[in-house]
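Input record, target 12 of the design panel.
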């Protein structure tokens, strides 16, 4: 791998990813090694008991630790195993993208992706989506965003950064073809009933 690309990834990995944020079961880490022969680069996920099983260094307990602490422990353990190891560590935060997107499902973000980024990851909005009402559920809180306005304005600083466990829901437009058909059918039924009574 070219040195400048490794340097870029290394600097990127130093981004603090909101260091107080915790990794919870279902989240994971992405390890990328560049100067060892062992093929152990990959994504590793936290189990229900909050343990993170990694190659050659054994399990790491992640409960009650923030991401920065976990990252430091992983780096320290591999430094003691390999000499001058070149290792990039990134968090993988589990989120759900639902509603009017082309590929709804579970996605993993590294902490730098925004609301618009994860909608793009899910294939983008459908023809029936209402991007003026995009909901983000975070524990017992709910946020509503006008993503359409955000796209039009291009104000990236107003975009929303996601955290582990967030659920993104893209609304459906009122008055799409399906809804219109329901309204027309209902109107037809009402007219038929009125005609019958007359």
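The sequence produced for target 12 reads:
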């Amino acid at each position: 791998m070219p040195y400048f690309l490794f340097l870029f990834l290394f600097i990127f990995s130093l981004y603090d990813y909101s260091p107080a944020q915790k990794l919870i079961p279902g989240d994971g880490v992405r390890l990328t090694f560049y100067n060892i022969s062992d093929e152990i680069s990959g994504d590793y996920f936290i189990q229900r008991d909050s343990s993170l099983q990694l190659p050659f260094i054994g399990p790491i307990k992640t409960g009650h630790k923030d991401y920065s602490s976990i990252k430091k422990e992983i780096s320290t353990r591999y430094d003691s195993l390999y000499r001058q190891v070149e290792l990039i560590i990134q968090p993988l935060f589990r989120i759900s993208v639902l509603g009017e997107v082309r590929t709804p499902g579970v996605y993993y973000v590294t902490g730098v992706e925004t609301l618009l980024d994860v909608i793009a990851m899910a294939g983008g909005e459908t023809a029936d989506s209402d991007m003026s009402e995009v909901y983000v559920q975070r524990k017992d809180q709910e946020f509503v965003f006008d993503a359409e306005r955000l796209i039009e304005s291009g104000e990236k600083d107003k975009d929303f950064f996601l955290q582990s466990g967030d659920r993104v829901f893209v609304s459906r437009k009122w008055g799409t073809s399906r809804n219109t058909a329901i309204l027309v059918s209902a109107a037809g039924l009402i007219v038929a009933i009125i005609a019958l009574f007359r």
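Strands lie at 28-33, 42-45, 51-54, 58-61, 87-99, 105-109, 129-138, 141-145, 167-172.
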